[in-house]
Amino acid sequence: MAKIKRKNGFPIPESELDISFSRGGGPGGQNVNKVETKVIIKWNFWQSRVLSREQKILIGEKLRNRINDLGELTVYAQTERSQSQNRAKAIKALSDLIRSALAVSPKRIPTKTTRPAKERRLKAKARHSEKKSLRRKKF
C-alpha cells in the first residue's frame, strides 16, 4: 500500500484516493482540446484508516464548504501542461489542506492594557465630551 506524503505534508494512502482526469483549461494550445490533463482527486476522509475520529470531525468542521454530499473532499489542478505535474500539484494541495485543517492554533494569552494607553483613551474621551458639550445650547 503506497502512501502519498509530501515534505511536511500529511500521509494519505493512495488506495483511499479516487483520482480521475478530464480536459482542463490553462496552457497547452490545441493540446488542451485533446488531452485530459486536469486532475480531480476525491478523498472520502470519513472512511479513512489513517485519521482518528477526532481528526475526521475536525476536518469535517473546518472544510465543510469543500466537502460534497457523499462526504468526499475534492481537489483539482489544471494549471500545468502535463497530467503528472497536475497530479503532483493536486496531491500537494490535498495534503496541505488536511495539514492546515488539523493544525491547532495556539491559545491566546490575554494581555493588560498599558497605563499610557488607558490615559490616551481617557484624554480622547474627555476631548470628545468637551467638543459635544460646547455644541449644546446654553439656557
Structural overview:
This protein has about 140 residues and is of the alpha+beta class. The protein has one domain (about 5-100): Double Stranded RNA Binding Domain, CATH 3.30.160. Helix content is about 40%, strand content about 15%. It is built from 4 helices and 5 strands; from the N terminus they run E-E-E-H-E-H-E-H-H. It has helices at about 30-35, 55-60, 85-100, 115-135, and strands spanning about 5, 10-15, 15-20, 40-45, 75. The strands form 2 sheets. The chain has a 3-stranded antiparallel beta sheet with strand order 3-4-5, with helices on one face. Strands 1-2 form a two-stranded antiparallel ribbon. A hairpin with a 7-residue loop joins strand 1 (about 5) and strand 2 (about 10-15). It is elongated and about 85 Å long.
Task: Report strand %.
Answer: 15-25%
- H/E series: EEEHEHEHH
- Number of distinct beta strands: 5
Instruction: Count every helix, treating DSSP H or I runs of 4 or more residues as helices.
Output: 4
The level of helicity is: 25-40%
Largest sheet: 3 strands, antiparallel
List unreliable stretches of 5+ residues: none
Structural class comes to alpha+beta
Radius of gyration based on Cα positions:
27 Å
CATH topology: Double Stranded RNA Binding Domain
- Specify the CATH architecture: 2-Layer Sandwich
Q: Give the overall shape, derived from the CA principal axes.
A: elongated
Which assembly state applies to the chains in this document? single chain
Tell me the strand order in the biggest sheet.
Answer: 3-4-5
- CATH C-level class is Alpha Beta
**On the 0-100 scale, what is the average pLDDT?**
85
- Distance N terminus to C terminus? 89 Å
User: What is the domain tally?
Assistant: 1
